Amino acid sequence: MPRLASGLRRLALLGLVCALLSACGAPATLKPRAGYWADQSVAATAYNHRVRFLVLHYTDSDGPRSLKVLTGPRVSAHYLVGQTPATRGGAPIVRQLVPENERAWHAGVSSWAGRHQINDSSIGIEIVNQGPYDRQRLDRWHPFDAQQIAAVTALARDIINRYDIDPANVVAHSDIAPGRKIDPGPAFPWQALHRAGVGAWPDAQRVARYRRLFASQRPDVRAMQSRLAHYGYDLDVTGVMDARTRQVLRAFQMHFRPSRYDGTPDIDTLARLWALDDQYR
């Protein structure tokens, strides 16, 4: 009862403040807060959105387990898209677990396009999917449901439009944490999302032109590392085809050449990399 009474008093006080504002003719841009007024009549123009990146994940679990983990004390995401989303009025329902203006804990140690700790500047979407059938072989992956992808597409497109996110900044968890993460994996239909206005994809004509060029003169490791880093991956340009370079290349292939993702710099991979960098960077 004391809590109820306290809540009613707060509601009454709020009503009194609103009534006073109306009676005094206070402008709508004058906002009452705890112990002061905020005058919002003049707005600055020198600012931009905190959100620069959209990161897509899979949950590596089923729906109930995914929800339990993402509402627990260790990790979170802004949105969770179920395996077969319910609908209302013909539109899919997705769960929003964290307000967009808050920092969800979905990216971990991460880097993209020269920025680190991507949690600070991103929105994260978790998609219910169990990932690879065999974590050692990584040769077969659970498919994504068509209704689920339609929901992800609608959600992602809305976020991109509101925050003006560049196509190259719509990324996989594996892009921002190569070697540490593999989600959402090569079964995720990035090309289909691109056709619907979400994310980047290499133009076929550019890829074909670079394939012809590289058939006679293939770029060296240093040039490849430079392009990967320029596109956004966290990679030092050493000229050495080391383990880190293979991890990054494998992440690139999972996203942009999912038919083969062994970290080998073949002509098709290099052509797609050069095409993407030309198009978006």
What does this structure look like?
This protein is an alpha/beta fold and 281 residues long. It folds into three domains: 2-39, no CATH class; 53-195, 3-Layer(aba) Sandwich (Lysozyme-like), CATH 3.40.80; 204-280, Muramoyl-pentapeptide Carboxypeptidase, domain 1, CATH 1.10.101.10. 40% of the residues lie in helices and 13% in strands. The protein is built from nine helices and eleven strands. The protein has helices at residues 2-24, 63-70, 146-163, 173-176, 190-195, 204-216, 221-231, 243-256, 267-280; strands at 30-33, 36-39, 53-58, 79-81, 87-88, 91-92, 95-96, 111-112, 115-116, 122-127, 170-172. Strands 7-4-10-3-11 form a five-stranded mixed sheet. A two-stranded antiparallel sheet has the order 1-2. It has a two-stranded antiparallel ribbon with strand order 5-6. A hairpin with a 2-residue loop joins strand 1 (30-33) and strand 2. Helix 6 (204-216) packs across helix 9 (267-280). The chain starts with a helix and ends with a helix.
